């Protein structure tokens, strides 16, 4: 017998000094195990509340179906539940159409769960042109995933896919979706033919990630699993026994007629800092929170059910956050795609969509990629939706708007844990943050002050042309080439390497030195190479600052060997903060004679 007594019912409080959750469990004669069924009943309540009361239905990219004629809706897809057909967990004895008016086009293939409960049968289903409700799984593959769909086993799986053959994370996802009576489940390893990333199927499906995750009724995130074999339902954060008391010592508490000892359990308050995005010093290293591909899967979700550290929590587009432990705070630092796609009216000048995009990039680059060339592809779904808000062209991770020049002011984050090398394969132009396979930071002219900071430019710095060659028809995905043509101040400089281990160098001009960091680790300066310092922009100090200095954002360029002098590549960046009277400002003396046009590749 297990009885749960919480604050709302009995006002028992174990106190903040113990740093425990405000819930106790009274048990007789057994441990306080909590089955996955009990946990998913809680998840069901959260999801149903959202379906009934919020406008999250169908996701950001959902195909809206008018509900004036329900017969027409039902007739569009023979697989869609008819009115009154089911009394499943999410449906809560109501027609799904009464709670969820928007239905979405199913992905190319889905895992059919409709016979799993009655016959324990699964199969892949070709779902072209079908509409319905489905869940998605966000997870980490790990070193090996043997449960994937290939051209060799696709035909058999369209007829039958044995549950026992699935890795544990897939099994747990099936369990969750089936318990919630969601009829279909999408898992990339099962629903996209694997084995050739250049195949037509992989290219088409990977380019539709925004729609697939955005249209799902629920995204299930196995955030704490480092491998597809780990699973995520088996390790709940269980209460621990504090002490035992005799039932006769408790007044006015009905616990049964037998005299016996009772155990009092409480769960230690969990650290919820994982809810926020990684900081510069603390990149996440576990599960989906460390993977680049999982970033857009979670951000695009209209509803996200996350399992992490033995805890389960729920978040939706209405910014509602629920946790098993009743954690009271709102999400810590989480920016949803809703804020990028549909900026709030109260956003000030400091929180433009581009500012939020640059902040998003900083957090995205703190995650890891197995294949470096996926750097832009893994973010393309988010980029396409943001593009509908900014309504401007996209160029290898940057937006061609008034903040384009400022977006070029990025630099790698330097510490042992985050240091990673450039890919040998081409990923992006040298001026793009995507060219660096590791975390970056940006000089955002909106953060850190109470008012926007307007960048200043020496003479007329002008972007003459931006030329990008996409790898596919998706102009927000991978690229195979690109350059920008810019007119501005390009100072001739000498460059010395100070420390190869720290990728540190120094620019020299007019006998003055400005230190900087190379983008690439272990960069070498060779005889005969020609270097330039491009003054990208100048940021004044905030009006509240007592120090009237300016920050010069400087890009270090190197002429391409064997090419014309104006053809260069980026090799480093620095910010140079000085007052106008500082002697080191002699570095910029005579800059007007250095106005020229350069092509940066």
UniProtKB/TrEMBL annotation:
Q: Which residues cross the membrane?
A: none
Q: Which residues form the Heterokaryon incompatibility domain?
A: 134-297
Compositionally biased tracts (Basic and acidic residues): 73-85
Top-rank taxon: Eukaryota
Task: Spell out the residue ranges making up region: Disordered.
Answer: 65-86
Classification via PANTHER family: DOMAIN PROTEIN, PUTATIVE-RELATED, HETEROKARYON INCOMPATIBILITY DOMAIN-CONTAINING PROTEIN
Q: What is this protein called?
A: Heterokaryon incompatibility protein
Q: Which organism is it from?
A: Colletotrichum fioriniae PJ7
Q: What is the lineage of its organism?
A: Eukaryota, Fungi, Dikarya, Ascomycota, Pezizomycotina
């Amino acid at each position: 017998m297990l009885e749960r007594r919480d604050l709302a019912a009995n006002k028992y409080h174990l106190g903040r000094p113990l740093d425990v959750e405000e819930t106790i469990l009274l048990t007789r004669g057994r441990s306080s195990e909590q089955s996955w069924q009990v946990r998913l009943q809680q998840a069901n309540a959260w999801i149903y509340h959202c379906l009934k009361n919020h406008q999250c239905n169908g996701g950001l990219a959902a195909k809206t179906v008018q509900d004036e004629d329900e017969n027409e809706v039902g007739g569009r897809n023979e697989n869609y539940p008819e009115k009154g057909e089911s009394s499943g967990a999410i449906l809560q004895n109501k027609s799904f159409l009464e709670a969820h008016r928007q239905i979405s086009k199913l992905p190319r293939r889905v895992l059919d769960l409709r016979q799993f409960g009655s016959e324990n049968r699964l199969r892949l289903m070709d779902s072209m042109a079908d509409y319905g409700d489905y869940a998605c799984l966000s997870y980490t593959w790990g070193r090996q995933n043997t449960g994937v769909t290939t051209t060799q086993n696709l035909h058999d799986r369209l007829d039958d896919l044995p549950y026992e053959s699935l890795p544990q994370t897939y099994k747990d996802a099936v369990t969750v979706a089936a318990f919630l009576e969601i009829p279909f489940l999408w898992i990339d390893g099962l629903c996209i033919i694997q084995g050739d990333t250049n195949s037509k199927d992989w290219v088409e499906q990977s380019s539709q990630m925004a729609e697939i995750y955005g249209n799902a009724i629920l995204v299930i995130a196995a955030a704490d699993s480092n491998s597809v074999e780990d699973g995520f339902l088996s390790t709940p954060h269980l209460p621990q026994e504090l002490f035992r008391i005799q039932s006769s010592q408790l007044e006015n508490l009905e616990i049964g007629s037998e005299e016996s000892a009772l155990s009092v359990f409480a769960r230690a308050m969990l650290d919820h800092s994982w809810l926020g995005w990684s900081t510069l010093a603390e990149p996440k290293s576990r599960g989906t929170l460390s993977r680049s591909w999982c970033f857009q899967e979670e951000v695009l979700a209209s509803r996200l059910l996350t399992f992490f550290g033995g805890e389960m929590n729920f978040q939706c587009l209405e910014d509602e956050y629920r946790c098993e432990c009743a954690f009271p705070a709102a999400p810590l630092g989480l920016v949803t795609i809703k804020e990028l796609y549909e900026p709030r009216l109260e956003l000030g000048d400091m929180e433009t969509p581009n500012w939020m995009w640059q902040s998003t990039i900083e957090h995205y680059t703190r995650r890891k990629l197995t294949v470096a060339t996926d750097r832009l592809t893994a973010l393309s779904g988010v980029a396409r939706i943001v593009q509908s808000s900014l309504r401007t062209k996209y160029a290898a991770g940057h937006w061609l708007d008034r903040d384009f020049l400022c977006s070029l002011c990025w630099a790698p984050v330097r510490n042992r844990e985050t240091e990673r090398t450039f890919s040998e394969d081409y990923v992006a132009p040298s001026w793009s943050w995507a060219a660096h396979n590791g975390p970056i930071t940006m000089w955002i002219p909106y953060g850190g002050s109470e008012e926007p900071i307007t960048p200043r430019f020496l003479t007329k710095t002008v972007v003459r042309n931006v030329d990008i060659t996409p790898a596919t028809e998706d102009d927000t995905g991978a690229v195979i080439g690109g350059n920008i043509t810019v007119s501005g101040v390009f100072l001739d400089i000498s460059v010395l390497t100070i420390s190869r281990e720290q990728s540190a160098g120094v620019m020299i001009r007019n006998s003055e030195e400005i230190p900087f960091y190379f983008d690439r680790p272990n960069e070498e300066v060779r005889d005969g190479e020609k270097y330039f310092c491009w003054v990208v922009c100048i940021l004044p100090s905030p009006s509240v600052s007592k120090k009237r200095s300016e920050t010069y954002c400087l890009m270090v360029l190197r002429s391409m060997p064997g090419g014309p002098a104006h053809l260069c590549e980026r090799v480093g960046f620095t910010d140079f903060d000085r007052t106008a009277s500082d002697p080191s400002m002699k570095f910029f003396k005579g800059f007007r004679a250095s106005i020229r046009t350069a092509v940066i590749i």
